[in-house]
Each structure stands twice: as C-alpha cells, then as structure tokens.
Amino acid sequence: MDFTSDNAAGVSQPIFNAMMATNQGASPAYGADPFTAKAVALLSAIFETDVAVFLVATGTAANALALGALCPPWGAVFCHETAHVMEDECGAPEMFTGGAKLIGVKGRAGKIAAKDLAAALKAFPRGLVKQVQPAALSLSQATECGAVYSCAELAELSAIAHAAGLGVHMDGARFANALTTLDCAPAEMSWKAGIDVLSFGATKNGALACEAVLVFDPAKAHTLPFQRKRSGHTVSKGRFLGAQMAAYLEDGHWLVNARTANEHAARLAAGLARAPGARLPWPRQANEVFAFLPGKTDAALRAAGVRYYDWTMRDFGEQRAEDEVFVRLVTSFATSASDVEKLIALAGG
C-alpha cells in the first residue's frame, strides 16, 4: 500500500503503447518529428492559443528553464517558502538563472495571499542597486500542500506581479489534478489568469518522463531553445517525448488519470477524517492528503505495510500534540481502490 508519491506509479497503458509504437522505424531527431508536432498542436488546441512548447524529461528542468527565461542573474523570484523550486530542486533555478535569488513568501497550505505578495514586493523596491531586482513570481498549482488556487486568486496575484513588472510562472507538476478540482478550461487556469510561462506536468500523472515548458507570451520564448540546449535538456530522440505528451493529451486521457487520482484522495481524506484521533489541517483539494495521526495509528499503519512520508511542520497555524505525527499521503491514477479502503479500515475510519 504505497502512498508515498504519485511518482511511485508506473506508466499508464496508452502512453506506454504510444512509446512502443513510436519505437518502430526511424524519425527525425531533436524534436523535428511528427510526434512532437502532434503534441504541440494538441497543446495549442487545449489551451486555446498558439503556444511555444519546449519538451523536457523532468519537472526540475521545466521549472528551472522557465524561470531562466523570466529572470536575469541579478533578479529575484518570489515564491511560497515551501515551493518545490525553493526547497526541492537543489539550486537548479538559481543555476539556470545565473544566480538569481529566490524570495520565500509565507502562506497557509502553500498558497500566497495577495496582501503577502504585495508586502514582499514592497520590501524590494525596484532600482535599489544593492538589492536583487524583482523579476518573476512563481506559483504552484496545486501547491506543495495539495491546495488549489482559484482562477480569481491566480488572476489577482498575476495582476499584482505584472503591475510591478514581474513575469508570472506556474509550476504545474500537478496541473491536471488542480484543473479537475476547479472544473474549468486549461486557458482559464493559465494564460487567461495572467500566467506567462507554465511548467506543464505529465510525469506524475501517467507519463514515463515528460514535462513541457509552455510560453504564452512569444516575447519570453526566444531564448529558450538555446537555454534548453546549453543545459543539456534537448533530447536527441525527442520523438519519445512527443509521443508521451500526445498520448497523454489524446481523448482526455490526462484528465481521466487526474480525476481518478483525485477521487481516490477524496475517499482517503473522508475516511481519515472519521478515524479516531485523526484530523486534517486543511481540506483536500487535489491528490495529496495531509493529516495529523495519533502515534498508535501511525504505528499500526506502518506495521501493516502502508507507506507514506512524515511531513515537516510549518507555521500554518496548527499545533501538533505530543503523540501526533504529521504525514502526507499521495494517490495516483494507478492507486488501488482496495488499498484506500484497507488504509481507512486500519485507521478506524
């Protein structure tokens, strides 16, 4: 019973089949293949605009390249203090930007509030030569805590950033999970809400290794072909990235996978909320469930073979009791419904 990460899941069958089919015969290299062209066309159709697409194999590459396109070496990237770009990418954003500074902003459940962004920007006045210059805002959708920004919240934060001269990036490693939660169009949760560059994730939701940097403002895309090549992320057999992305998007497969993962998480959250002594610090919105568990419940789950991660406590306005543990459980398209029910039963929910 593995609830450690959606990265623990395998490749969904349609994507695996597409890669096998792509393996037959020869095809032009470095992304000049029909599979990549199909993926680009699908992405432009889904997002209702012509979008510049740069396929890469990892989310870290997507995020770092996106921020490198938005932020100079003397710039500042504002993000939540627990954002993946801040805590989990080993300095890749700093390296790809040539040394830009990441500025963490506090906020409950991984979300930045408009007033807190405005206050952070005020502390970095433009033109002060001894300070880094505000250049980009990075928002995670869904957040590291599994929370989801509404389209109105995204638009408000983007408007504040744009008014201050910043570009806006979205880390969409779990874009599909957030989208199915909001039940809106991809365009509404991206460029129509003011997002300039999107790291569009597929790996956590069924792909083998495939992410895309989507640039909605052509003026911000002209350096990316060179940045991607210089950083070692231009894949020679790029057709295998194109095939993954095309199969991911065809027939709404990406949304089916995300909806399945979210439904598993919803059942898990409801079951844990009923379990004696267990509590959820904030509502489950995507495919991550965060919970305080009594120590004896945690021990029983682990003894039964349930796998998940302890999670770091932050100043989210919650206090942990002495005999509580704070944990994260993640579901995926491949999660077994019976595993969810077994976990709930073990917890007493």
TrEMBL record:
- What EC number(s) has UniProt assigned to this enzyme? 4.1.2.48
Enumerate the SUPFAM superfamilies for this protein: PLP-dependent transferases
Its top-level enzyme class, in one word, is: lyase
* Keywords, comma-separated and alphabetical: Lyase, Pyridoxal phosphate
Coiled coil region boundaries = none
| Alphabetized GO MF terms | threonine aldolase activity
What is one Gene Ontology biological process annotated in the Swiss-Prot or TrEMBL record?
Answer: L-threonine catabolic process
Q: Which residues form the Aromatic amino acid beta-eliminating lyase/threonine aldolase domain?
A: 2-292
InterPro entries per record: ArAA_b-elim_lyase/Thr_aldolase, Low_specificity_L-TA_bact, PyrdxlP-dep_Trfase, PyrdxlP-dep_Trfase_major, PyrdxlP-dep_Trfase_small
Asked if the Swiss-Prot or TrEMBL record annotates the protein with the keyword Cytoplasm, the reply is no
**Which Pfam families does the record match to this protein?**
Beta_elim_lyase (PF01212)
Which reaction is recorded as catalysed by this protein?
A: L-allo-threonine = acetaldehyde + glycine; L-threonine = acetaldehyde + glycine
Q: Does the keyword Cell membrane apply?
A: no
Q: Which cofactor does it need?
A: pyridoxal 5'-phosphate
State the family it belongs to.
Belongs to the threonine aldolase family.
Q: What does this protein do?
A: Catalyzes the cleavage of L-allo-threonine and L-threonine to glycine and acetaldehyde.
**How is the subunit organization of this protein annotated in UniProt?**
Homotetramer.
Protein name, entry field: L-threonine aldolase
Please state the gene responsible for encoding this protein: ltaE
